[in-house]
Design a protein that fits this description.
The protein is of the alpha/beta class. 31% of the residues lie in helices and 20% in strands. It has one domain: Aminopeptidase (3-Layer(aba) Sandwich). The strands form 2 sheets. It has an 8-stranded mixed β-sheet with strand order 1-2-6-3-7-10-8-9, sandwiched between helices. Strands 4-5 form a two-stranded antiparallel sheet. β1 and β2 form a beta hairpin. α2 packs across α4 and α3 runs parallel beside α4. Bound molecules: zinc ion. Zinc ion binds next to α4.
């Protein structure tokens, strides 16, 4: 601060002291509110879950169309690619005698201010199950919502740079056996030992009781404090669905985070309880709960702010 600015500061403080004191209530314990563009989140979901995307099955023209849209959005946001290119093409073998299928991950990076060479990998799969018996499975919440969240997260952290780098990964072929996550960890695009943790987002657009789960702290209890007191209205954040051998569903193996967990990399998975539209033709954009969805994205951003500061 320069000497000449001091009198101004004193004046400002004097003015502030005349204002009524803030009410001492529970609200002061709330995390700062985060701005996200709810309209843009919904536009991304509507585009990705449109019939023209033909259910975004890996290796299909519909999947390629979805990829082109995500790529265009990455560029609009100003998200730089990881290394030379956004695209990470890979192949995998389907069930039975099916020939090799191709998939392509899209990788962008928000560079960390103090630990540029350390990465929190933020994942959301963009593929879905395609067309079955002539009916398009749009996969609005599985997982157009997660991909829309990726864009909002990238946009936020480009404006408010994190200390640890964020690898923003829109993964392909999750529905075919978490193939995109496998391909990413097997590739030379990122060294496994440079990955601090994985934050996976898959289905965050609706819940009748406004409950969002953060799953994984059973395996990685050191992550618990980062998730306390961060829920953004109307979201209620609960921990769980990660304990093996109980009556409550264990989601540890259910999405891309399983691959990171298998490699010994800590993860937190954000998602909702199964809903009746899941993997049916009725998982459409019109059924997304706009306010809950935006609250879930803001909650995940607050969690990431903590992880990016505290995970090294
Ligand atoms: Zn999914």
């Amino acid at each position: 601060m320069s000497a000449s600015s001091r009198p101004l500061l004193v004046t400002a403080l004097a003015v502030v002291s005349l204002l009524p004191a803030p009410k001492p209530d529970a609200q002061t314990a709330q995390p700062p509110s985060i701005n996200v563009d709810t309209g843009q989140l919904m536009r991304d979901v509507v585009v990705l879950a449109a019939d023209e995307m033909e259910g975004r099955r890996a290796g299909t023209p519909g999947g390629a169309k979805a990829r082109a849209y995500i790529l265009q959005r990455f560029k609009e946001i100003g998200l730089p690619p990881l290394g030379e290119s956004y695209e990470q093409p890979f192949t995998f073998s389907g069930r039975g005698d099916a020939p090799l299928t191709s998939g392509t991950n899209l990788l962008g990076v928000v560079k960390g201010t103090t630990r540029a060479d350390r990465f929190i990998v933020v994942t959301a799969h963009y593929d879905h199950v395609g067309v079955r018996s002539g009916q398009v499975f749009n996969g609005a919440d599985d997982n157009a919502t997660g991909v829309a969240a990726l864009m909002a997260i990238a946009g936020h952290f480009l404006k408010h740079p994190p200390e640890t780098s964020l690898l923003i990964a829109a993964l392909d072929a999750e529905e075919r056996g978490v193939q995109g996550a496998r391909a990413l960890l097997a590739s030379d695009r990122i060294r496994t030992d440079a990955i601090v943790m994985n934050v996976n987002i898959d289905m965050i657009g609706r819940d009748a009781a406004n409950v969002l789960y953060a799953s994984g702290t059973y395996h990685y209890p050191a992550l618990k404090p980062f998730l306390q007191g961060i829920a953004q209205p109307p979201v209620e954040l609960r921990l769980g669905h990660d304990v093996p051998g109980t009556k409550v569903e264990d989601w540890t193996s259910d999405s891309d985070h399983a691959v990171f967990h298998g490699a010994g990399i800590p993860f937190i998975y954000f998602g909702v309880e199964d809903f009746e539209n899941h993997h049916t033709v009725t998982d459409d954009a019109a059924t997304i709960q706009r306010e809950f969805f935006a609250g879930a994205v803001r909650t995940i951003i607050v969690a990431l702010e903590g992880f990016a500061e505290g995970m090294k």
